[in-house]
């Protein structure tokens, strides 16, 4: 998703942006919890309400257009994080972005894989432009953990649908528990090429992909479509400065 080096970003985000969740919507089912732990990822289709999705899509499309016009995704711009891809850090305190982290299913998932307490450490947009976006397979953290609680949980929201040709996320299931490098089985050890075990996650708009970005081998893929592919990832990390409200209390008294 982000690429090696994001581990330092999580460390910098030590002061939680939010430590509590309103926990709206449905929770995480037992079968979903098992799948998340076993495979290192879980797709939950069409979770975001249409009204919230429509507003987010319009807002983020405007943001992407502005960034492209300003040349901040250009190959020749030395400040470009990833050529041909629009990146933006979003403010979780903005009420318009609240639906992207304020959900019982995400709260349940974070508690299941990170333990308690945990906190929300950021929201990030990644929008590959047409003809761009392919990454080599990688885990986000340099120091991987193949056992015990997860180091982080990423919740990638499909603001536009993830199709086979618009740059969907690809993952290697169960690789978060593998000590070796799955890229070693590829010809010349090239992480850019296809992997025999990879899964490209195709999902309708409004879906969320929960995954172990720190330790699971994954990457973006080429956007062969004619439009930017919009996705926002909410990052959750263990620990927190201010303890979260108990689940029952969170439901009655939403965090500000």
Overview in brief:
With 256 residues, this protein is of the alpha+beta class.
Keyword list:
256 residues, alpha+beta, Jelly Rolls, six-stranded antiparallel sheet, 9 strands, 18% strand, globular, disordered C terminus
Tell me about this structure:
The chain has 256 residues and is an alpha+beta fold. The chain has a single domain (6-142, 150-240), classed as Jelly Rolls (Sandwich), CATH 2.60.120.620. Helix content is 21%, strand content 18%. It has 5 helices and 9 strands; from the N terminus they run ααβαβαβββββββα. The strands form 2 sheets. Strands 1-7-4-9-3-2 form a 6-stranded antiparallel β-sheet. It has a 3-stranded antiparallel β-sheet with strand order 6-5-8, with no helix packed on it. 43% of the residues are buried. The model is unreliable at 1-20 and 241-256 (pLDDT under 50).
Radius of gyration: 17 Å
- Do you know the CATH topology? Jelly Rolls
Strand order of the largest sheet: 1-7-4-9-3-2
User: Proportion of β residues?
Assistant: 15-25%
Gap between N and C termini, in Å? Answer: 29 Å
User: How many DSSP-defined strands?
Assistant: 9
In total, how many domains does the architecture comprise? 1
Outline, from the CA principal axes? Answer: globular
The CATH homologous superfamily is named q2cbj1_9rhob like domain
